[in-house]
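A reminder before we start the practical. When you read a complex entry, don't treat the lines as separate problems. The point of joint prediction is that each chain is placed relative to the others, so the output describes one connected object in space. Small molecules and nucleic acid strands, if listed, are placed in the same frame. In the example below there are two entries. Take a minute to note the order of the lines before looking further.
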Amino acid sequence: MSYDRAITVFSPDGHLIQVEYALEAVKKGTTAVGVKGKEVLVLGVEKKSTAKLQDPRTVRKIVQIDDHICMTFAGLTADSRILINKARFECQSYKYYYEDPIGVEYITRYIAKTQQKYTQSVGVRPFGVSTLIVGYDSKGFPKLYQTDPSGNFSSWKASCIGRSEKPVKEFLEKNYIDEMDEEQTVRLTIQSLVEVVESGEKNIDIAIMRKNKPIEFLGRTRIAEIVKEFEEEKKRKEEED
Amino acid sequence: MDSLVGFVGKNYVLMAGDTNAGRSIMRLKDDFDKLVPIDSHKILAKSGEIGDGNQFCNLIIRNVSLYRIRNETELTTKSVAHYTRRQLATAIRKNPYSVNLLLGGYDKKDQKGSLYYLDYLGSSKKINYGAQGYAALFVGSILDRFWNEDLDFEDGLELMKKCLKEVEKRLIIGTRCFLIKMINSDGISVVEKVMINSEKKNEIEEEN
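Here is the predicted structure of the whole assembly.
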């Protein structure tokens, strides 16, 4: 039997080893967090520390797919570029045919379908990328979706992908409350990242997606303010103990 | 049957199109908007086959949007004109689009408006003033005479109405109703929907 016809084949115990390796690649990527509030969506990413001579502005992990949909990813950046490009094209294509803006679930399903295709095709390897997709559905509710290299996708209230997935998810599970307002959602996102990002708030990017408004990237000073408030709270708690 | 007029003024572009959509002798629609916004600061005025116009403009709008999402910046009017011309030029010998266009846009970078004349054969020219359709036969001389590059908005609107009045007077098919739009630094705005009444009718009334 020649095993070089397709790269993704079943192992004897029913696993797709290549897909699981792809998930390992995702676990090596920088952390990305998504949190859904009552009427707001917040994405937070740990930025890869740039070399001294590198221009940090060219490394953008939170991208716009359409006017009303944003996404971020964890894993191989170059692979994500392909997915992002395909998604952007699909959004415009949808609008071309149907005149309506694309739905969040629709584009998520499209991205997930693309990722799955590459697990069942000849001569290709799976995408080493998990994505977090945020946007508002046709009824106006905020939605957060996650896809992974296997082509699975699901909706989340809050999720995390990348290298600090476990501790951040535990933190979110402990501290997430339903129907948070914008301030609380932003704080929760920042807090969850600050715990795990080594280099501190300079390497965090926060993006806020409000209904019918363009995406807003939180400024450096505001993030620094919020982080400072956490640290002071922490100190106070330690002093009380 | 379509009449489109456009010219560049001081810090704005004024465009007008008749609002008739017809088929042979029948007027199907009298509130048809032929001035389609491509993005926040550009209008594509379409004339010719209605179906082709719809499809083609849709194509341009979607590709301009895709560029904006991909590159996080808007295309200049010049770039859109060139892109549009390229689409028309490649189509003419394969599956032609029977559309003649006027592309008007305002570029924030240069703080200037510009107007392009494009036709279905794939020709394109940057113009200061011009028209498509039957209007071109009548308004060319008026604009030659009265247009200058320092027209402020009120004078520009007056000049546009002068052109549209001439079209209504001389074109045997009654166009009557025109939609005037303006593009400036704030974006696209509908200036007026004008109903032009021919002077001749007034003369007859006076005689009686």
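Discuss with your neighbour: The interface with chain A takes residues 58-59, 62-63, 65-66, 69-70, 72 of chain B (CB under 8 Å). What might explain this?
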